[in-house]
Amino acid sequence: MTELTYLQAISAALWEEMEADERVLLLGEDIGPFGGAFKVTKGFVERFGERRVMDMPMSEWAFVGAAIGAAMLGLRPVVEIQFADFIATPFDMIVNQAATCYYRWQAPVPLVIRAPSGGGLRAGPFHSQNPEAWFVHRPGLKVVAPASPRDAKGLLRAAIRDNNPVIYFENKYLYRKVKEDVPDGDWTVPIGQADVKRRGRDVSVIAYGSMVYEALEAAETVAAGGIDVEVLDLRTLLPLDRDAILGTAERTGKVIVVHEATLTGGVGGEVTAIIAEHAFELLDAPLVRLAAPDTPVPFSPPLEDFFRPNAVKIAEAVRKLAAY
Amino acid sequence: MTLATAVRSLTRDDLHTLLYWMRLTRAFDDRVRLLYNQGRIPGAAFSQRGHEAISVGSSFALGPDDVVAPMHRDLGAYLLRGMTPRRIMAQMMGRVTGVSRGRDVNTHGMGDLSLNIIGYVSPLPDSMPLAVGAALAFQYRGEARVALTYFGDGSSSEGGCHESLNLAAVWRAPVVFICENNQYAYSTPLSRQLTVENIADRAAGYGFPGIVVDGNDVLAVYEATQAAMARARRGDGPTLIECKTMRMLGHAYHDDGSYVPRDLLDEWSRRDPLLVYERQLRDLGALTDDELAALDRRIAAQVDDAVDFAEASPWPAGEDCLEGVYAL
User: Fold this and answer.
1) Could you list the mean pLDDT of each consecutive 10-residue stretch along chain A, which spans 324 residues?
2) Is the CB of residue B325 less than 8 Å away from at least one CB of chain A?
3) What tens digit of pLDDT does each residue of B229-269 get?
4) CB B325 to CB A102 under 8 A?
5) Cβ pair A70:B140 closer than 8 A
6) Which of A119, A229, A269, B286 has the most Cβ atoms closer than 10 angstroms to its Cβ?
7) Could you tell me if the ipTM is greater than 0.95?
8) Inter-chain touch B129–A70, beta carbons under 8 Å
9) Is residue A190 a part of any domain in this protein?
10) Closest in B111, B129, B328 to A66, CB measured
11) How confident is the model at residue B2 (pLDDT cuts 50, 70, 90)?
């Protein structure tokens, strides 16, 4: 075991996969001597050289495309998009090329795109977004969004070893805020498996990314009032773990889905639809979605605090649902 | 270039091989048009007429381990790289024996890594960065391989074209870019797309050579491509070759192309790449009437066989669409 922050866990997964597999290389803006905007790749270029830690010009469309071409020709590139907000620039490459090549002509594209996402850092509309739903709507991609350091490491390893394009949303709010003991050695967290982070009987909170911690905090808050909350961390958003989603719905009969991304067209809609379709008879209350309102991410602290779900808002929703 | 310099590096067999691929491309394409008009090819199909010298001449310069990323008017490149007329015709007809097993339409998605062909998607020039990435993989492993890709005058206006050319330059990547300037992006003429005379002139802005060649002269295209391939293989980086031609038919077969001035087409029809090449071979004394007739008979039989094969091939079952979204 080694105690790692969320950020260190991501770095460790990259480092160890690069040590283990010569085909793994990194492409991104300012990831070389500068170590990346968030220092995830600090020290990498010194160890692995510029051949494997490649600083990119501001050409996300082209270098994601180049990563796709290199992946087809046998490499396993890991691309860092400096902020998830900028992933709109190579969107075409991701959804039209990477997602479809295997389906159309059986060319595997073993590519990982790391996208630091999320708000709460007073970073404004273009350094705070959560664009995961855009990619969840694209068959051929896999989408993961780990919350814990352990999952961050295990899922990144699994993503690098996967023969499909994986969009890896790392929540930058968590980078240095959470740490835990992470097992050493060679192991992965399988893509497609959710994880019950807290067992409970009364209400299920389904979350991912930073909202997992807010949900756990809310669960502690309401526990004092006798409400026993189960927290399910989705971990993977495409493919969703339907069994785990239906399992928690069955156990509590009352479900809240929480995400930092905006409400309409968000992952919460899909999760609640799965439950409504397959577990309607097991429900004791209407399904609840708690998400950011349908606006761009605002900058000013009072605005962003209103915008972003948190433990207080989740606890409030839990109490209301428990009383239904 | 002069005919003599190109021919010096080619044997008589080579010259006939080029003729074969060009005439196969034309015959196959003519049959596709017929089948499309008869309703035997669903969807859409893109005309190749006018582009045969470009796709054949350039891909003839590829070595066996080089990678090519062609687009929709590069039928000759697919054929030359070993994709059989049978597979391609079955692809056109949406049959299970087609390259994409019915998943992608006409020449789209006709990739096959065992033949070193990267398939394309409809948004263009989306193959350009993939070719740069293939070249990156070659550099990474220290392999003396080259990637060749194509784009059109239409895609030259996309930001991705600039990004790809620039990235290739920065990496000094072993890649050759062929610009097929056929004067129209669907219905939009060059005058509404750009103000410079040559797209190749833009290469100077990236610090690598840009060359203009007659896209209807297969030997000129071949020679320019071969030189660019050699340069890339030496580690000297990319080259942009602009091949000037004319799209002689509509964008695809549903389009009559009536917006193209008649006299422009008349002018270019006199420069038809097949006619130009036939004349060159005859002037060299390298082609007889009998040889040409025998070649065309062989080609017609191949095209007939491809159609028979495709039409005898099964359709995919509807539920097959669910399979193979993800690689294992």
Assistant:
1) 98 98 98 98 98 98 98 98 98 98 98 98 97 98 98 98 98 98 97 98 98 98 98 98 98 98 98 98 98 98 98 98 98
2) yes
3) 999 999 999 999 999 999 999 999 999 999 999 999 999 99
4) yes
5) yes
6) A229
7) yes
8) no
9) no
10) B129
11) low
Q: Same structural domain for residues A155 and A244?
A: no
Q: What is the pLDDT of residues A129-167, one digit of tens each?
A: 999 999 999 999 999 999 999 999 999 999 999 999 999
Given A182, A203, A223, the domain boundary residue is A182
Residue B47 half-sphere exposure toward CB, CA atoms < 13 A: 18
Whole-angstrom CA distances from A307 to A106, A171, A178 are: 43, 17, 22
Is A188 inside any structural domain? no
Structural domain including A278 reads 195-322
Domain total in chain A = 2
CB atoms within 10 A of CB A239: 15
Q: Identify whether A137 is a catalytic site residue.
A: no
Contacts 24+ apart (CB under 8 A), B281-290: B281/B15, B281/B19, B283/B3, B284/B3, B284/B7, B284/B15, B286/B12, B286/B15, B286/B16, B287/B16, B287/B19
Peptide bond into A302 cis (omega under 30): no
Count of CB pairs separated by less than 8 Å, A with B: 131
Confirm or reject CATH 3.40.50.970 for domain B3-311, answering yes or no.
yes
Closest approach of chain B CAs to the CA of A65, in angstroms?
5
CATH number reported for the structural domain that contains residue A279 in this entry: 3.40.50.920
Residue B5 has pLDDT above 80, yes or no: no
pLDDT at A308: 98
A182: left (phi over 0), alpha (psi -120 to 50) or beta: beta
Site from B81, B101, B130, B172 to mutate, A interface, most A CB atoms within 10 angstroms: B130
Nearest to A104 among B100, B130, B132 (CB): B100
Q: What are phi and psi of A155, to 5 degrees?
A: -75, -35
Q: Are residues A73 and A213 in the same domain?
A: no
**A202-222 exposure pattern, b = at least 16 Cβ within 10 A, e = fewer:** bbbbbbbbbbbbbbbebbebb
CB < 8 Å to A141, chain B: none
Q: DSSP letter string over B296-327?
A: HHHHHHHHHHHHHHHHHSPPPPGGGGGS-SS-
Interface test with A, best of B65, B104, B148, B163 (most A CBs within 10 A): B163
**Of A182, A214, A240, which marks where a domain is finished?**
A182
User: What is d(CA B233, CA B8) in angstroms, rounded to the nearest whole number?
Assistant: 21
**Contact status of A138 with chain B (Cβ, < 8 Å):** no
Q: Do A218 and A269 belong together in one domain?
A: yes
Same domain, A16 and A129: yes
| Chain A residues within an 8 Å CB radius of B155 | none
Pair (A73, A137) in one structural domain:
yes
Q: Same domain for A27 and A153?
A: yes
